[in-house]
Amino acid sequence: MKSAIIIGGSGYIGSFLLRELLSLGEFKHYLVYDINPLKGFDDELSEGRIFFRKADVRFKLALPDVDVDGKKSWIFNFAAVHREPGHEYKEYFDTNIPGAKNVNDLARKTGIKNIFFTSSIAPYGKSLSKRTEESNLYPETAYGISKALAEKIHKEWLYEDNSRRLIIVRPSVIFGPKDPGNVYRMIKSLKKGTFVLPNGGNVIKAYGYVYGLIDSVLFTMDKRDKLIVYNYAENPLVPLNEMTRIVKSKFGYNRPTLRLSTKILAVIAFFVQVISKVLRKETSIHPVRVRKAGFPTNIEPKYLADENFEFKFSFKKALDHWESLSPEDFI
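Predicted structure:
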């Protein structure tokens, strides 16, 4: 049977893709492997449209309980340790490397010929210049290095058999409904008047709306290329200071936005960390995160642009769409 096996399907992107595939009726069966429970799909689970298996990608993955058509079925690998900072250096390697190997083994044992892997823009490393899929990789962090190695591991599986297909997406910061990530934190901070533009905000911070990303997944699956490696970011991007202007204009926020250098912000973040530890309180303010905020991530989705993919979501349109689906996020 034509089946979709979604590794890490309980996560943010995985659950959005699952819902879209269900609505389109793309597959007969949906098998979700995740260390966390799958939420929001109770009806589909009870009806037997989705099968859930608790699994840790660091270890061998059990075979599915249903027959799969190897030529038509897909494995989607979303599982990863990714929050940075947030984990010890070795944790990124302990999960992301064995995870890719175990997904490959599952594909071999089931005879599934198609893998979709979610990598990251982190393997590109820091650069003031624009990065496309043709750019060299210079990963500098444990996360970036582990993702680059995972890409290589999946390519090794691909080259074992000429009938196999592999799609690798390198997404930028993904945001959307119910996501408490960077873009949402920026919006909340702008509302409170606590957001600070690093170095005046004259940098490109690549971002992608989750619904646009899912569109790109379906778009590339419809291609016939043996290997596709593509970036996902909205096109065109706007600089960080323009993003803040759009947010303030849309929601009527009128509190001033401070502008400070990244060096000063990093010093402030250091002392916030020290004080938080003394008070035993958690904070999202971290020197590493502040330095990352001030450095550009100018990512161009060249493959998609060349293939005439329709980018539906400018930053303003993404906010409009997000608010229409989940207005409570902005209360």
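Summary: The chain is about 40% helix and 15% strand.
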